Amino acid sequence: MKKHPIFWARAVLGAFVGAVFAVAAGGANAEYPDKPITFIVPYSPGGGSDQQARRLQPGLEKALGVEVRIIYKTGGGGAVGFSELWRSEPDGYTISNVVVPNIVITSKGEGIGFKPAEFSYIGMTARAVGALMVPKNSPYKSLAQFVAAAKANPGKLTVAGVGSTGAENFAELADILGIKTAYVPVSGGVGKMIPMLLGNHVDAGMTASSHAVKHKANIDTLVIAGPEASAALPGVPYESGWTYTTTWGVMAPPGTPADRVAILNKALNEATADPKVKELVTNNGLLQMRQTPAEAKAYVEVAVKKFSK
């Protein structure tokens, strides 16, 4: 018996609706993650953020079972990359390096739309104190010589740093030392600053001590921040009143589901537990950190209060 055309239309429609619901149900039940994750680095290749991402990438891929793709979104002292994450879908498939206090200081810039306290923080992984560095062929072989030259030529010596973050951190040291210099902001990160220093385009550079350790064959460190000397930089004096500390971590867009943040945090802590990662962290003069998402959020909130003034 021949079936009416309406019967066939209903059958086709029913099959289509069923397929749609099946796909939807399959998507809802699919385990996270089931596709590659994008890891935004807001600074240029070769800097501390890039080094952190590269250290973590293999461990994250192993723990999550998917590819972790590193992309660079540079500019504005990190603001371009942070803004990219802010606008990303909060589904756990886009994460970013975060640098404290950089994210807080850059958020104060004109036209910046992201709010540091509202990102979904996965965890901080490493930190380092600040360092003032000069190239090996510099005429300044000690902090005393640098200070004397700066006082003899107010505003003439040039000191490079990363964006407005570097300006605030060096201003603290300059005030302690009682000197005036010309600050040179570098957009894009330490990866662009070190060549300037090594090429004698500036008299000194100011950044995290981990870079001083990495480039110690070509640069001398005049002083580091903090209350104690560094085993990775033996013989380098420290200034206890200089509070500059750089911390690297990983974050996701605001509103990322807590269960996905927890999965990412577990993977992050597995990655940092790798002996090879621990060795890289120590050899670069960094202090390793392991945190819960709540601890990471609280860590950033302290920085927000400190640097938002």
What does this structure look like?
The structure is a single chain. This protein is of the alpha/beta class and 309 residues long. The chain folds into two domains: 37-125 and 247-307, D-Maltodextrin-Binding Protein, domain 2 (3-Layer(aba) Sandwich), CATH 3.40.190.150; 129-239, D-Maltodextrin-Binding Protein, domain 2, CATH 3.40.190.10. The chain has helices at 5-29, 48-64, 79-87, 102-106, 143-152, 163-177, 190-198, 209-214, 258-272, 275-283, 293-307; strands at residues 37-41, 68-72, 94-100, 120-135, 158-162, 182-186, 204-208, 219-225, 238-239, 245-252, 287-288. Strands 1, 2, 3, 4, 5, 6, 7, 8, 9, 10 and 11 form an eleven-stranded mixed sheet that branches. The longest helix has 25 residues, at 5-29. It is globular and about 65 Å long. The N and C termini lie far apart (83 Å).
